[in-house]
Amino acid sequence: MADKSGAGRTVSKSAGGDVSPARKTAGATSRSKAGNDNAHSPIKSLIQKEVIPRLLMSHSIEGARTDFFQGRRAKEAEAKKFAELPLTNESDFMLAEVERLRRAGVSTESIFVDLLAASARRLGQMWEDDECDFVEVTLGIWRLQEVMRGCALRSIAESESKGAPSSALFTPMPGDQHNFGALMLEEVFANGGWQTEVLLEPNRHELLHLLAERIFHVVGLTISCDYPSQKISELITAIRSVSKNPEVHVLIGGRFVNGDKTIAVKTGADGTAPDARSALALANSLVAQTELAGTPVT
After folding, report:
1. Pairing of strands 9-13, 2-3
2. Residues pairing with 198 in the sheet
3. Largest CA distance in the chain
4. Among 134, 136, 206, 215, which lies 20 to 30 A Cα-Cα from 284?
5. How far, in Å, CA of 171 to CA of 194, rounded?
């Protein structure tokens, strides 16, 4: 288990060693299989698995969004200008642009959802439309993730000043290799003052073992592939049965769930949200209700 830069935030990768803080984003999105002689294979995999299939939960219902950070939403013109940057500008330049927008009043949350997520979707669309090649898109995504990490590091001091945070674990459904959505959720929750951890490519045993050993207030499962409701339900039941926190809340989301909101009810999840912002609001509400009903878990 490797510590991310910043207190209370970690990232893990199963069956392949630790992901170091400096390599979190690049390492998580540039994996290739041993013995693969096709130089474009890991790049193609990146685009197919982490850009095109709506892996960012922020791609959703606009009306469901509310603000949880001080500041304003990015304007359409600002978002459009930022979306042009990843292909031709380094992450340092993009971070400088983010700081300029911060000074202009744009919230950290809006930067994540309205700028970074939107830019990632645009890169995926450009690749589909043959407007750029694999290498250009890969570099663009890597730069966006570096900016995302830089924004998170700059917000750690603010998060730490808010007292003992609630804790959350984010992970793709075991067997689902789409992990960028879980990474984005982790960033948004961390900037909302939560203690966060994200698992990359977990297996069922690893996930349940971690939940049995550590206290988490919320477990967020991102589901991009089509899974039988029964399989999801069985995992949620197992999570609750082994969790060190008897009051753990299980949230599900992602492309598969967004396509059918009744899945959350069918599988016994505590709820779902169309985007990372709404997921944070829901999680805050659930934890607050638990604390009002009895002694909070610490």
Report:
1. antiparallel
2. 11, 170
3. 57
4. 206
5. 16
253 strand-pairing partners: 222
Between helices 204-213 and 229-242, what is the axis angle to 10°?
A: 30
What is the spatial distance between Cα 279 and Cα 285, in angstroms, rounded to a whole number? 10
Q: Please give the distance of CA 213 from its chain centroid, rounded to a whole number.
A: 23
Are 232 and 264 in contact by the 8 Å Cβ rule? The answer is no
Tell me which residue has tokens 């009895």: 294
Q: Are 25 and 146 in contact (CB under 8 A)?
A: yes
Q: How far apart are CA 198 and CA 130, in angstroms?
A: 33
pTM assigned to the model: 0.54
Q: How far apart are CA 235 and CA 250, in angstroms?
A: 10
Among 246, 248, 252, 287, smallest CA distance to 269 is for: 252
pLDDT digits (tens, 9 = 90+) for 93-150: 999 999 899 888 888 778 888 888 888 888 888 888 888 888 888 888 888 888 887 7
| pLDDT tens profile 70-103 | 578 888 888 888 988 998 899 889 999 998 998 8
Q: What is the DSSP string of 44-70?
A: HHHHHHHTTT---TTSS-GGG----SS
What separation in angstroms does the CA of 206 have from each of 13, 168, 189, 202, 267? 10, 16, 22, 6, 21
Residue 231 near residue 200, CB atoms below 8 Å: no
Q: Is 170 left (phi over 0), alpha (psi -120 to 50) or beta?
A: beta
